[in-house]
Each structure stands twice: as structure tokens, then as C-alpha cells.
Amino acid sequence: MDVDLERIFFREEDIPKEYALLEQIDQREFLSNGEMLPWSGQVSEVFSPICVKTKDGLKRKRIGSYPVCTEKESMEALEAAVSAYDNGRGAWPTMSVADRIACVETFTRKMIEKKDVVVKLIMWEIGKSFTDSIKEFDRTVEYIYATIDALKDIDRDSSGFKIEQGIIAQIRRSPLGVVLCMGPFNYPLNETFTTLIPALIMGNTLLFKPPKHGTLLHYPLLEAFRTSFPKGVVNTIYGRGNKIVPQLMQSGKINVLTLIGSSRVADSLKKLHPKVNRLRAILGLDAKNAAIISKDADIDLAVSETVLGSLSFNGQRCTALKIVYVHRSIAQEFLKRLSEEVGKLKYGMPWEKGVTLTPVPEPNKPAYLTECLEDAKSHGAKVVNDHGGKTLESFFYPAIVYPVNSKMKLYREEQFGPVIPVVPFDDLEEPIEYLIESSHGQQVSIFSNNAAVISSLIDPLVNQVSRVNINSQCQRGPDTFPFTGRKDSAEGTLSVVDALRSFSIRSLVATKNSESNKKLLNEIVGDHSSNFLSTKFIF
Questions:
Q1: C-alpha distance from residue 381 to each of 234, 324, 329, 367, 501 (Å)
Q2: Residues of the chain above pLDDT 90, percent
Q3: How do the domains of the chain map onto residue ranges?
Q4: Could you tell me which residue, 537 or 62, shows the higher pLDDT?
Q5: Distance, CA of 146 to CA of 22 (rounded, Å)
Q6: Which residues is 467 bridged to in the sheet?
């Protein structure tokens, strides 16, 4: 197959109208303290990874701009969140669970009204296929409703009183305070909302910083946030993260840091907080998920799952397979079939039907991946698939690299792109040792039809990673399953239920079991004078 990367790019006038943005979005306002505040200062231009053909060659298409705010605006947003929380006495943290749920439901209805523009912005900002952009939006809405249902279950379970050893108590969950929420570019809506929504619905107030790539898509939702929640509950901050975030952390007023991104960034931010014991961190960080393909694996299945696991959204997923261990006896057959299947993948623009491989959003990513390939070649590896590593502007054609060894960048570094490093092994102890020595510990995939082989890997590996997948790629879902990692891959656990627990703490009201105290409790509950101490049942 010949790979003509020039042909995948369109002229401006040839872009199908149903996928085009109606106009560039130049954001000149941000949400802070319940108001959409105007911005006339510095802005950051947003250029899509989708290039267009011009008389001067390929050019990234400009799709808009957003504010580059300063420390002043960020600190004002922080003060708004602190004021809205008001040491736990604000309207939002003291609101009943049923009323908070109603606010989130109102927001979700307004969010759905913006689906068309948000989906297009996901596609244009990060190059995700139109089909997958729709899936991301729909999955996010499903996640919100699942979170609401999970909170109802938790609240129903907490609606009664317990009597133990002469003490009457009601145990519920209460918020933690002000949350700084920072999401990733690869799932800029879904991954951001898997922390933002549970933090919000549990009664916390928020500072929300959109990702660098994937900022504009949140703009159409700001008015929905403003009109669905009390003043100061949701505040957006814009600007250079290394400028505005340190001061926020140094203030000591951030109670929860939630970040999906780099462990290096997370470590540096946590160290800035002056009261580290008061800071809760909920982090989704680096991962270098491995596949282990034994000599008795179903090669066709291993190949198909490796293609999906390593190249879905160009391999730009924390759960992607980023290194593949294959038994030496089947390595050549595996590489042959893997190369054939990669060669069948459709590449092109995100709106094209059936497209799998699209431009990558990070401007420096093709150069970094090329550097990784050259480094691997210098240490004895080859790119084994036709056209692997061919680049043009924002597009990088997938490369299968073999044999990878410990001297290469691809052995340790998380490439976060369409490169598949393959390592041959003779003894299962080799991939086990790799995972033991790795600083990452998110997931692993085991491919084998031999129960004894699988069981011999399960027991050591469940103590190295948080999820062991058998004959399937690594993945986050279903959203009801725990999602976390060991070592430098995560802190805290996210899933629909776990996230609600992560952004709250168990609190209780207790008293001695006496007639006078029982009368007091009945009076409070009967008068509905407390939102916390309540036997209301949410359906």
C-alpha cells in the first residue's frame, strides 16, 4: 500500500459544510463568581491539528482564541470559590442532596442543547474523529446520569439512623471544600467531567482550568454552569498553568487537587501547598501499559486487540497499550499480522467515515516520535511496517518498532502516540520484571489460551498494576468499575461510586440513646430543619 499523506488534507472550500465550524470562536469572557466577566487582555490563538491546503502549502486552521488571564484573575476566582463554600456554611455545601441533584440535572439539560457545537469543537481542537467526538459527549452525559443515580443510592443507604452501644448516629457524606480541577487534552470533556461532576454534586466549590488543547469546547457550557449553580460554585481560570496555578496552591486554600496529566506536574504542585495534610489529591497520571503475548496465545485476537489498544485515538490514551512483550517463538508471525492490520487502517480527516488515524493535536508530537524512532534504530531496532513513522505536518503514520530493548527511550518513556514498541521474550519472568521495575502501574493485558500461564501472571501482576485484562486491551470502562493505578500512575480511585467517595468524607451526628435525645432528633427530622440530619428518601 502506498501512503500519500498529502492527499488526506483538504482545501478550505472542500471541507463538508456539515462538519465545518460556522465561525471562529474568539472567547473574550470567563466565568467567575457567578458572572461572565469580560476580557480585553492577552489571548492564546487556537489552531487546529487539521491542516488545510493553501497556495503557501499546508497550514493549521485557526479556529479561535481564549483569554490568557493572570494571577490576579485566578486569585479572584479562588476567593469566589472560598466565599461560596464559606467554611462549609455556604448555600451549596449545606444544600440538600436532592436540591444539588436538581441543579446538576438542570445543567445537563442545558449541556445537551449545546451538543452540536461541543462535538465539532472536540473534533477541530484535538483531531478526534467525528464519530468518537460524539461518543465522548454521549458517554459524558451517561456518566453524569450514572453519578446522579449512584448518589441517590448512597443517600438512600444513609437516610436511616444506626444504634450501636448506646449511641444513636446518622452517617452521611459531606464535602471537602474548594477543588482545583484540571483535565487532559485527550478526553477534554469526558475525563474532565469524571472529576468535575462528582466534586460538584457532593457540595464542593470549584476552580476549573480547561486543558491547553481542548479549551474552547468548554466555552459553550459556561452559561449553563452560571445559570445552574449558585454564585461562585463554578469558576473558570485561564492562562499559563505554570504561572497561575502555583500561587493558587501556595495560598493553602485549595482543599482538593484533581489532575489528569503528568506525575511530574502533580508532584510539583502538591509540594507547593503549605498544609499538605489538609490537601487531598485525586490524580490520573502517567501509564506505560504492557501487553504480554505468550506462545500459546490466539495470535489473531492478540493482533486485533493490540491494534485497538495501541492506536485508538492515535494511541493518545492513558489506557493505551504502550509496549508489547511477545514470545520470541511467535514474534515474527505476530509482527507480520500486526503490520498487515495496521496497514488496513483508514487514515485521514476526522469527519471521514470509518477513519481511524487522524492528525495529532500537540504541535511537537511528530518530531518527538521521530526522535524516539531514531533513538531505537541507533540501538538496533527497525520499523517493521511499511511507511511506519512517515510524517507530514500534524500527521504521523503508525510505526511498529522491533526489537525494543532497555537502552531505548521507547522502553521506558510514555510515547503517547501511534508508535508500537515490541519486545521479544523467552521467559515470562522478563515481562514480570519489567512491570516490577517500572515506575508506572496502571494496567496490563495478558494474551494466552493456557489457564496455567494466565494464573501464573495474575498473582504477581495484581500487586503491580490496578487492573489485569485477560485476552483484551487495557481500558477504563465500564465507568462503574474502579479506575486507578499504582506507583506514579494514580492517586485515589475514580469510578461512578468511588469518585463520589473521593470528593467527600464520612461525617456523622451522634448522641446518647436517651428519651430526651430521641425526642430532639425526631423534632429536627420532623420539622425538616436540617439538610444533613434527615430521613428524606430520594427516588
A1: 50, 14, 18, 18, 46
A2: 98
A3: 7-284, 289-482
A4: 62
A5: 33
A6: 443
Q: In a 3-state reduction of DSSP, which class is residue 163?
A: strand
Give bridge partners of residue 290 from the DSSP assignment: 323, 444
CA distance 539 to 536: 10
Strand ranges for 166-312 from DSSP E: 167-175, 178-182, 205-209, 234-236, 256-260, 280-284, 289-293
* Cα four-point dihedral sign 34, 40, 41, 44: positive
Q: Are strands 167-175 and 178-182 parallel, antiparallel or unpaired?
A: unpaired
* Interaxial angle between packed helices 331-344 and 299-311, expressed in degrees from 0 to 180 and rounded to the nearest 10: 50
Kindly provide the b/e burial profile for residues 159-194, where b requires at least 16 CB atoms within 10 angstroms of the residue's own CB. eebeeeeeebebebbbbbbbbbbbbbbbbbbbbbbb
Residue 321: enclosing H or E segment and its boundaries? strand 321-327
Q: Which residues, in sequence order, are CB contacts of 378 under 8 Å at separation 6+?
A: none
- Main-chain phi, psi angles of 441, to 5 degrees: -160, 50
Give residue-wise pLDDT tens across range 104-126. 999 999 999 999 999 999 999 99
Phi, psi dihedral angles at 509 (to 5 degrees): -110, 125
Cβ–Cβ under 8 Å, residues 193 and 136: no
pTM of the model: 0.95
> Cell triple for residue 213?
488543547
Q: What is the pLDDT of residue 1?
A: 54
Instruction: Read off the pLDDT of each residue in 288-294 and give the average, rounded to a whole number.
Output: 98
Give the pLDDT score at 3. 77
Neighbours of 12 (CB within 10 A): 11
For residue 429, the one-letter residue type is: E
What does CATH list as the number for 289-482? Answer: 3.40.309.10
**Assigned C-alpha cell, 322:** 504502550
pLDDT tens-digit profile of 431-452? 999 999 999 999 999 999 999 9
Is 7-284 a CATH 3.40.605.10 domain? yes
